[in-house]
Amino acid sequence: METEKYSANIVKYIPFLYVVWADDLLSASEIAVFKKAVREDSLSKEERKLISSWLKTETPPLDKEITSWKHLIDQSGIKLVESDNYPLTSFSMKLSFRGNNEEEISNENLKFIEINLGIQPNHYRHLFDIQTRQSPKADFYDPEKIDGILKGEHAPHIDTFRKFLSDPLFQWEISRDKDTFRLRVLEQVKLLASAGYGAMAYEKAYGGIGNMPAYAGIFENLMFIDGSLTIKFGVQFGLFGGSIQNLGTRKHHDQWLKATGEAGILGCFAMTETRHGSNVRGIKTTATYVKETDSIVIDTPGKNDNKEYIGNALHATMATVFAQLIVNGTNEGVHAIVVRIRDEKGNLTPGVHIEDNGYKLGLNGVDNGKIWFKNVSVPRENLLNRFGNIDEEGNYSSDISNPNKRFFTMLGTLVGGRICVAKGAVGGTKLALATAVKYALSRRQFNSGEKVQEDLIMDYPSHQLRLVTPIAQTHVYHITLEHMIRSYSSSTEASRRKIETQVAALKALITDFSNKTIQECREACGGKGYLLENRIGDLKNDVDIFTTFEGDNTVLLQLAAKGVLTDFKSEFNSDSYGDILKLVGTQLSDRLATFNPLFTNNTDKEHLFNPDFHLEAFHYRVRRLTFTAASRIRRYVKKGIPPQQVSLNIQTHLIALGKAYGVMLSYEIFADFVKQIADEKMQFIFRKLGTLYALHHIRENAAWYLEHGYISGNKSKAIRQRVERLCTELRPHVVSLVDGFGIPEHCMTAPISKQ
C-alpha cells in the first residue's frame, strides 16, 4: 500500500507502530494496550481492521511496509519536540494533519498508548528528526514530593539541618594534609554539637530529644558534606556517647552523657584489636578488678593485642574500652569500661600509649590511632554496668546468667551504629549518583553522522542501565533503613536479636552496593569523575572502608545466615545441628514443590511486574538456601565432622543465604511502604522503582534460578529485557529522582553537576 493512500486516522498511529516494531518487546499486554486505544478511537471498521492486522506478533508487518512508514515520517519535514508533554502523541497528530495545526492538537487514545507502554524520547531518538530540548529537566514528578516521602516524619529536623549545613565552615574543600584536615573536622563536630545535633538521640535531660531515627537521618545527610566529618561525628556521639547511653546506667549518664553531646568530653570507642579484629569475644585486653583498691586495671597483654584503628584516638580524652573482665580470678567475658586517656592539658595519662595510624585510603580527616594500656587503673564505678556489675563487696553479678547471651545482648544495643553506617553509605551513593546523572544530562558524545548535535550520554541504554538501576536500589535501601532504625529504636532486649540478624544482612548488602555504585558513577563520568574537585573520588575512598568497619561484611553475612538457620533463637556454633535441621526442615520441607511450566515460562508484563511474583521469587531463594544449608549440616554431623569444620564447609553457602535474605527483607519492607503512599502518582513511580529493584536482583541471580528450575531461559531473557526497558522508561524522570534525594544546592559543589 502506498503511504499517500493512508487516511489521517491511520497516519496518526504510524509513528507508534513504527516505534513498537523497532522495539523487540511487543508483548501480549502491550498489544492489549494498543488494541484498547484503537477500539475506543473514532475509526472506521476498515481502519480498525488494518491497524489490528499490524499488531500480530505471529505475522508482523513486512519489512517493506515498515520501510514505507519510515519514508512517510522522514518526508514529512515534521520534528518531534522532546519538551512536549506527550512528544510522540504531538508528533503523530501533526503528521496526521500534515503539519497544518494552527491550534494545539492532541488525542487521548494516543496518550493512553504513550503512557501505558512507557514510550519515551530515548526509545526513538534515532527514529525521528528530533528537536532537542534545551533543558534536561522533566517536571512530571515533583522532586520535593519525592524528598518529602523519603524524609517522612523527620522532615522538620532534616530541613532545618540542611539549612544549617550552609554555614561556611561546612564548605567542602580539597585537603591533602591530614593534620589540617583533622582540625577542620574537629571544629565542624564542635559546631554541630553546639547546635544540639550530636545529642539528638539522648534524652532531654542530657541535651537531646530522644530521637534516634532523626539522628540517623542527620548522619546520612552529613555525607553530603564530607565522609570524615560523618564518621568522626558518629564516633563521638554514636559510638562513644552511645556506649555510655546503652551500656551504662543513670550514674554514667549523669556523669558523662551531657558533656559528650556538647563535645565538652571527646571520646573514642576502643573495641577492635590488631590480632582480633572481627572476633570481639576473643579480644585479649584485660580489665582486672582489684579488691584492695576497689579499682579496675586495664592492661594490654601483648604487642599485637592493642586497640587498633580507633577513631578520635588523637583528640579524645576518654575511651570506652572493651576488655575481658576478670573478677576474683574468674573471666566474666567482654565488658566495657570508661577510661581516661588524656588529662585536661591533653597529655596522655600514665600507662596509656597512642600511635597515629597515619594516612589511609580515605577518611583522612578522622584521627585513627592504636592504643596500648599498661596497668591503667580506673575506679570500679567506671564499669558500664547495665548488663554486668561489681558491687561494693567486690562480687560480680548479672541479670543475664548465660555469658553468651549476655555478650550478644550487650552487642545488640550497639546495632544502631551498623544502621547508621549503612545510611551513611546510602548518603554517599546519593551524592555520587546525583553528580553522575547531572553530568550525563549535559555531556554529549557521538551521533548518527547526519545530526549536527551529538547525543546526551544519558540517552544511551547502557548508561541508563548503569545509573537508573542503582537509583532505584538507593530509594529501596533508603526506605528499608528508615524502617530498621525505627524498629531498632522501639525494640526490646528480647526482640533485638532478630533485628541484629536483619541489620547484619542489610549493612553488608547496602555498603557493598554503595561501593560498586560509586565506582560505577566514577566510570560514568570518565576523566571528570577522576578529578578531586568533582568529589566522586573522595566518596569512593571514604565509603570503601564501610564494608569492613562496624562488622566485616563477610562475617556479617554469615551472622545473618546463622540467624536465619536458627530462627533467631541461639548461636550456630553452640546449638545442636539436629535441632537446627528439625526447626528449618519443619518449616520448609512441604513448600519446595515442582513448578508449573506456565509459571516458569510466563513472560507477560503483568506477571513480571507483579510484586507477588517478586516476593515469591525472593522467598523461594531464601527458603531453598536455608533448607539446603540445613541438609548439608545434617550430612556432615552424621559423619562426625566437628562443628567448626562444618561451618567452614558451608561458609560460601551461608554468605549466599545472607545476601539473599537481605535482598528479600529490603523488598518486603519497601513493598509494604509503597502500599501506604496516599498520592497515587507518587505510588506509581515508587512501585516502578521497586519493580526495577526486584527484576534487577532476579536477573543478577538468574543462573541460580535457572539451575533450580524456577524460571525458564525465555523468562530469564524477558526479565533482562524488562530491566533495560524500565531504565529507559524512568529516563525522563531521572532528574526528579536524584533531586528527590534532597541534596542541598550548597552541597552539590562538583563543577560537573552544574554544567
From TrEMBL:
It is an enzyme of class 1 (oxidoreductase). Residues 158-259 form the Acyl-CoA dehydrogenase/oxidase N-terminal domain. Residues 412-563 form the Acyl-CoA oxidase C-alpha1 domain. Its EC number is 1.3.3.6. Its main location: other. Residues 611-754 form the Acyl-CoA oxidase C-terminal domain. Its cofactor is FAD. It comes from the Bacteria. GO terms for molecular function: acyl-CoA oxidase activity; FAD binding; fatty acid binding. It is found in: Peroxisome. Residues 268-376 form the Acyl-CoA oxidase/dehydrogenase middle domain. One of its GO terms (biological process) is lipid homeostasis. Keywords: FAD, Fatty acid metabolism, Flavoprotein, Lipid metabolism, Oxidoreductase, Peroxisome. PANTHER family: ELECTRON TRANSPORT OXIDOREDUCTASE. This is acyl-CoA oxidase. It comes from Sinomicrobium pectinilyticum.
